[in-house]
Write a structure and sequence with these properties.
DNA Binding (I), subunit A, 2 domains, 4 helices, elongated
Length: about 170
C-alpha cells in the first residue's frame, strides 16, 4: 500500500499528499471527507470494507502560509527527471551550478541542474557555452501544484480535476 492521497483544503485547493493510512484516519475521525475513491480498491477491517481514498477534503480550512517547493537536492533531481542536463545519462548524478559559485552564482532553482560527475568535471569552473556544452532544459522553479501533479511521482487519474495548472516546456 504505497499509494498516496491528495489532500485538499476546505476551498478545494491542493495542500499536500499523504499516505492512505493517514487519509483513512482523517476521514474516520471526521476531520476530512472522501472526495474521490481509488477506482475499485477497498480497505478491509475484520468486519467491514471501506473505499480506499484517492482525494480527500479537510472539513476545516487550514491556513498554509507557504505553498512552495523546497530547494533540496532530491527536488532538483526530480525536476530534472533524474537525468544529466548536459548528456542525458542517469548514472553518477550530482548537482551543478550553471553559473559557478566562484563567479557569483547562487544556490537557487534557476542556477542548479542535475549533472553527471563526468559533465560536471568537464564544465569545471566555466560557463557551459564557453566549454561547448548545452543545457537540455533550462532550470526553473516549479510551482507547488506542478510539483504535486508531475514531479511527485504519485499522481493518478483521480487527482487530475484538482490539479489544473498547465506546465510549460517541462520534460517529465
Amino acid at each position: 500500500m504505497n499509494r498516496r492521497v491528495l489532500v485538499l483544503n476546505q476551498d478545494n485547493s491542493p495542500i499536500s499528499v499523504c499516505t492512505i493510512q493517514r487519509a483513512f484516519l482523517l476521514t474516520y475521525l471526521n476531520k476530512s471527507e472522501l472526495v474521490k475513491p481509488a477506482n475499485g480498491h477497498k480497505l478491509h477491517s475484520v468486519s467491514q470494507a471501506f473505499p480506499m481514498p484517492a482525494v480527500i477534503r479537510l472539513n476545516r480550512y487550514v491556513n498554509v502560509p507557504y505553498k512552495g517547493v523546497s530547494l533540496t537536492r532530491q527536488n532538483i533531481f526530480k525536476r530534472d527527471n533524474f537525468t544529466c542536463q548536459y548528456c542525458g545519462t542517469n548514472k553518477d548524478l550530482t548537482l551543478d551550478h550553471v553559473i559557478p559559485r566562484s563567479k557569483g552564482g547562487k544556490s537557487a532553482w534557476n542556477n542548479l541542474v542535475t549533472a553527471c560527475k563526468r559533465c560536471n568535471a568537464k564544465k569545471g569552473n566555466g560557463d557551459p557555452e564557453r566549454v561547448g556544452m548545452k543545457i537540455k532544459t533550462a532550470p526553473f522553479k516549479p510551482s507547488y501544484v506542478l510539483f504535486l501533479r508531475e514531479l511527485s511521482g504519485f499522481a493518478c487519474e483521480e487527482w487530475k480535476p484538482f490539479l489544473k495548472v498547465k506546465s510549460k516546456g517541462v520534460k517529465v
